């Protein structure tokens, strides 16, 4: 998904957002849309919740709970958003990521994208990320963890069903 042809210098467009203490991103073509979060999720959201939007039932993944080191709910914004992800298969279910702020569109040169070592991903909260990009920004470096949609969907299947 993030591994581009070595000859390609075309930037990869990602939707980036903060989760816990990390800046994470998804490829823009993986995002269906960004919508306002339904009010009932403001009271607290476990790792996985179900939400009804229009004619769809969407599984909402709270990566804040998955990535936070203290496991507290770090959603403190007065306005939450859902980043709705395109299904992996044509008949697949919709799912969304709960975020504090509207995401940003960032273009990342393929030359700064590196795969995360598999050993660092096993059993680690960052298991949902497959690659990392490090971009120079003013006086610092901006580190962006690039999420693997299949790994995020694995969080859904490994989490208890809401209400059970």
List descriptors:
41% strand, 11 strands, 6-stranded mixed β-sheet, 3 helices, globular, 5-stranded mixed β-sheet, mainly beta, 164 residues
Mind explaining what this structure looks like?
With 164 residues, this protein is mainly beta. The chain has one domain (17-158). The protein contains three helices and eleven strands. A hairpin with a 2-residue loop joins strand 1 and strand 2 (22-27). The longest helix has 10 residues, at 149-158.
Main sheet specs = 6 strands, mixed
Compute the number of strand runs: 11
Q: Estimate the global geometry from the Cα principal axes.
A: globular
Indicate the mean pLDDT.
79
Structural class: mainly beta
Q: What is the alpha-carbon Rg in Å?
A: 16 Å
Order of helices and strands: EEEEEHEEEEHEEH
Number of helices: 3
Q: Describe the strand arrangement of the main beta sheet, using strand numbers.
A: 8-1-2-11-10-9
Q: Number of domains in the coordinates?
A: 1
Q: State the end-to-end CA separation.
A: 34 Å
Strand content: 35-45%
Which range best describes the helical content: under 10%, 10-25%, 25-40%, 40-55%, 55-70% or over 70%? 10-25%
List unreliable stretches of 5+ residues: none
Outline:
This protein is mainly β and 164 residues long.
Layout: helices, strands, pairs:
Elements (H helix, E strand, L loop, with lengths): L11 E8 L2 E6 L3 E6 L11 E6 L2 E6 L1 H5 L13 E5 L9 E5 L4 E5 L4 E3 L2 H4 L7 E9 L2 E8 L1 H10 L6
């Amino acid at each position: 998904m993030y591994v581009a042809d070595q000859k390609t210098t075309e930037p990869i467009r990602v939707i980036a957002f903060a989760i816990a203490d990390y800046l994470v991103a998804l490829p823009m073509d993986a995002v269906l849309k960004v919508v306002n979060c339904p009010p009932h999720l403001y009271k607290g959201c476990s790792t996985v919740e179900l939400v009804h939007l229009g004619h769809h039932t969407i599984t909402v993944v709270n990566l804040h709970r998955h990535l936070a080191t203290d496991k507290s709910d770090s959603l403190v914004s007065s306005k939450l958003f859902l980043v709705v992800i395109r299904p992996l298969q044509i008949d697949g279910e919709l799912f969304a990521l709960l975020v504090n702020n509207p995401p940003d569109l960032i273009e990342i040169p393929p030359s700064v994208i590196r795969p995360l070592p598999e050993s660092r991903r096993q059993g680690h909260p960052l298991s949902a990320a497959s690659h990392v990009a490090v971009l120079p920004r003013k006086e610092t470096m901006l580190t962006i963890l690039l999420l693997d949609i299949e790994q995020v969907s694995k969080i859904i299947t490994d989490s208890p069903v809401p209400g059970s």
